[in-house]
Every structure is written in C-alpha cells, then in structure tokens.
C-alpha cells in the first residue's frame, strides 16, 4: 500500500513539475506569422496578381484568420501545395492551415492525422469536354480517356461513376490542373474531370474558351474547406469559427465598411459577434474583437464571393448551394452566443 502511495506521489510530482505544452495557437502567436497552404493556381481561389501577391477566395480566408489571431491580415506566409503533399504538410507542421479547396471526407478526417473545420465552399464534380466531341451529357462518355489527378476524391469519384453506370473509360493520371489542361489541349485525353469550379476556372484560362463546354452532370458532393492538424482542438475551433464569423456577418448585414459602427449600434447577436458584448474571444484564446478584425480585413462571406467568384469576377458563379441557409443555400453559421 505504501509503495502504491509513493508511486502516486512521485507521478503527481512529475506531472506538476512538467510545464504545460504549448498548442498550435500559442505557437502561431509566438511566431507572429500564420503559415497557410494554398492551391498553386486556381482562378478565383488562389492566383498571384501582376505584382506576385496572392489573391483569391481561399487566400482571403487565411488573411481573415491572421487578422483574427494576430491582429494583422498581412502576417501570412503562403505556400503552394500539390494534391499529394497538402495533408502531409499539415502533419509535419510545414503549414498551420490548409486552405486549398480540399473535400471533406470520412477517410481524410479519420486516417490522415488531420481534422476538418467547417465547409467554406460547396461544389460537385463534373466534366469539361471539347464541343467538337459532340456530347451533351456524361452518359455519352463511355470509352473516353479522362484526365484526373492521383490520390484525389476526383479519381475515386470518376471510377465510381463509370462503374455504376456500366461504362468504360481510360484514366490518364496527371499531376496537377495545369498539366491536365496541357494534356487535354494536346489531345492526350478527351475529358478533364474535377470540381466544377476548377473546371470553370480551367476553361476561363483557355484562349478558345467557347470551344469547350462544362457538361451539366454533377456526379458527387464536394464540401470544401480548411483543414488543420489533428489533435489541435483549440486551433481547430479558431479556424472553424473564423470561417463561420464571415458567414454570420453576411447573414447579419455586417460588412467590411460598417463593422465598426455595427459594433456600437447593432443588436445583441451582432455585438456578440463583433466582441462589444460577451466573451467569445476569450473562450477561443483570442482578443475580444477577433471577428471584427477578420471582417474588417477581408469583408463578409458574400463580399468575398462576389469579388472572387461571383458577379464581380470573371467566373461569374451563381451562389447556388453557397447561398445563405435562409436564401435556399447551405451556408449556416452556428449561433454566436
């Protein structure tokens, strides 16, 4: 009995003596820079401008996250990620967050050492073909050669689609979207399959865009959003709630321009969101005005969508599933209370 008590006392003294382990949020604060993994080039989501500054829907999410955590949207180090290395880069701490149109799946969430956050963009997989091919539906693609990407949901989805429908195809595995576009234009494959947003961006970048069509078929559900390393619970909360803050801001009518005044004159829900009431920031390990800082840095979700993907962008996407829940879409931020 004495030995057991002694062992327990020794164990307790060891635990007491050990300093608390710093988590990812503390690490980022100490470093003073957020490390964000992005797509190497996807129109509307992540592309460098003429000065080499990264722009896009996913890029601005990272800027909002930096503003929320560090109080400065410029404190971001962007690294481009391939489909092969994007999740590994999280596990090895090369990046803090992956914002690269990556589909949330059970396998990725359970087996790869990473965690999902909250959906940031709802998409679906489709097919891009040359008009000259003379097809109007994916049902006409039996026997086609299809360009797809290794180790992606796109590769698995296209196999499921053809097998389920009793159709044959030949897969041409291509490393990335730029390489797929080159192979497709060179006639090495008849079809490119990918998320429809990616295909629209690829088509837009072609000199003869009108010679190519995006087929109407949608063969999968693709909820896309930021990933973080598994086991970093507080950091996952910060990453998820920052996205939801931008979504909630649109629903509440809070914009980049009016956030300061709304923090003073808005209703209780708006004041909780913007930090002028309540203690949500404290619960996340952030300053009280973390969400306001994110919104003032990049705008709300609707502002980002319109600028990078919607009516004010070359892509001109309709909101569709990415509309707010009360406008027929799937966007639904949890209550800020």
Tell me what the structure shows:
With 337 residues, this protein is of the alpha/beta class. It is 40% helix and 15% strand. The chain is built from 14 helices and 14 strands. The protein has helices at residues 2-17, 24-31, 57-70, 86-91, 106-111, 153-164, 177-185, 196-204, 233-252, 259-265, 268-274, 280-284, 290-298, 301-308, and strands spanning 34-38, 47-48, 54-55, 76-80, 97-98, 114-116, 121-123, 125-130, 144-148, 169-173, 191-195, 212-214, 222-224, 227-229. Strands 10-9-11-8-12 form a 5-stranded mixed sheet, sandwiched between helices. A 3-stranded parallel sheet has the order 4-1-5. Helix 6 links the parallel strand 9 (144-148) and strand 10. Helix 3 crosses helix 9 and helix 10 (259-265) packs across helix 11 (268-274). The longest helix is centred in the C-terminal third of the chain and has 20 residues, at 233-252. It is globular, with a radius of gyration of 23 Å. The termini are far apart.
Name some characteristics of this structure.
single chain, 337 residues, alpha/beta, three-stranded parallel β-sheet, 14 helices, 40% helix, disordered N terminus
Low-confidence sequence ranges: 1-20
Can you summarize the main beta sheet?
5 strands, mixed
Report mean pLDDT, rounded to a whole number. Answer: 92
Q: Any idea what the shape is? A: globular
Structural class: alpha/beta
Rg over C-alpha atoms, rounded to the nearest angstrom: 23 Å
Number of separate strands: 14
């Amino acid at each position: 009995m004495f030995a057991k008590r002694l062992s327990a006392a020794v164990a307790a003294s060891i635990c007491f003596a050990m300093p608390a382990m710093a988590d990812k949020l503390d690490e980022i604060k100490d470093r003073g820079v957020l490390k964000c993994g992005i797509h190497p080039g996807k129109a509307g989501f992540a592309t460098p401008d003429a000065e080499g500054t990264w722009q896009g829907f996913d890029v601005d999410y990272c800027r909002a996250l930096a503003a929320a955590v560090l109080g400065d949207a410029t404190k971001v180090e962007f690294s481009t990620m391939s489909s092969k290395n994007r999740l590994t880069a999280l596990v090895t701490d090369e990046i803090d967050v992956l914002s690269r149109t990556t589909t949330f799946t059970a396998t990725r969430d359970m087996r790869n050492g990473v965690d999902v956050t909250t959906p940031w963009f709802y998409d679906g997989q489709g097919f891009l073909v040359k008009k000259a091919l003379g097809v109007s539906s994916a049902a006409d693609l039996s026997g086609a050669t299809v360009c797809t990407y290794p180790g992606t949901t796109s590769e698995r989805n296209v196999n499921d689609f053809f097998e389920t429908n009793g159709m044959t195809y030949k897969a041409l595995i291509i490393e990335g979207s730029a390489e797929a576009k080159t192979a497709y234009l060179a006639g090495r494959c008849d079809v490119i399959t990918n998320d429809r947003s990616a295909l629209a961006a690829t088509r837009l970048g072609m000199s003869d865009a009108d010679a190519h069509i995006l087929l109407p078929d949608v063969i999968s559900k693709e909820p896309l959003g930021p990933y973080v390393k598994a086991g970093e619970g507080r950091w996952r909360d910060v990453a998820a709630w920052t996205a939801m803050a931008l979504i909630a801001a649109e629903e509440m009518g809070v914009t980049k321009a009016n956030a300061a005044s709304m923090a003073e004159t808005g209703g209780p829900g708006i004041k909780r969101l913007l930090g002028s009431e309540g203690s949500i920031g404290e619960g996340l390990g952030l300053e009280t005005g973390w969400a306001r800082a994110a919104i003032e840095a990049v705008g709300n979700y609707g502002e980002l969508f319109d600028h990078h993907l919607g009516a004010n962008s070359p892509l001109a996407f309709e909101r569709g599933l990415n509309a707010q829940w009360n406008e027929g879409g799937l966007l639904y931020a949890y209550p800020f209370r």
